[in-house]
């Protein structure tokens, strides 16, 4: 299986078919090379590695997004926890690490996004 195929499989397993289908439908000639890069690199290499679990990757990813102030992707990765096995408590623990090592304001904002996203997820079910 190619790295792209592996990446697409993992991406769908983590983010869900609906999310990936929307992203693929929105892809244009302008961002197609970027989409290929993240599918092969992020999903086909990093997320596909069996070195740590998907649960642990979710926790790391959320902590890194919060610590670096990349808040736009936090809701997407909170939604992914339903598929990776990272619990709400896992997410809280990850954001507490962010508060200590990267700053309370970033952790606070990440928690606000997580709370809103979990509320949306509960309303959808």
What does this structure look like?
- The chain has 125 residues and is mainly α.
- It has helices at residues 3-15, 17-26, 32-46, 54-67, 74-84, 88-101, 104-124.
Individual helix count? 7
Q: Helix-strand pattern, N to C?
A: HHHHHHH
Q: What's the number of extended β-strand segments?
A: 0
Q: pLDDT under 50 segments (min length 5)?
A: none
CA(first)-CA(last) distance: 35 Å
Instruction: Name the assembly state.
Output: single chain
Q: State the secondary-structure class.
A: mainly alpha
Outline: globular
**What is the makeup of the main sheet?**
none
Radius of gyration: 15 Å
SSE topology sketch:
Elements: H1 3-15, H2 17-26, H3 32-46, H4 54-67, H5 74-84, H6 88-101, H7 104-124
Record keyword descriptors for this entry.
125 residues; mainly alpha; 0% strand
Summarize the structure.
The chain has 125 residues and is mainly α.
């Amino acid at each position: 299986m190619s790295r792209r195929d592996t990446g697409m499989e993992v991406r769908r397993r983590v983010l869900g078919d609906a999310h990936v289908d929307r992203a693929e439908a929105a892809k244009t000639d302008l961002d197609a090379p970027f989409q290929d890069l993240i599918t092969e690199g992020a999903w086909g290499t990093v997320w596909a590695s069996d070195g740590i679990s998907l649960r642990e990757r979710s926790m790391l990813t959320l902590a890194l997004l919060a610590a670096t102030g990349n808040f736009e992707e936090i809701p997407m990765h909170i939604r992914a926890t339903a598929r990776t096995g990272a619990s709400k408590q896992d997410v809280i623990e990850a954001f507490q690490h962010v508060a200590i090592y990267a700053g309370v304001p970033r952790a606070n904002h990440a928690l606000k996004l997580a709370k809103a996203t979990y509320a949306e997820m509960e309303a959808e079910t």
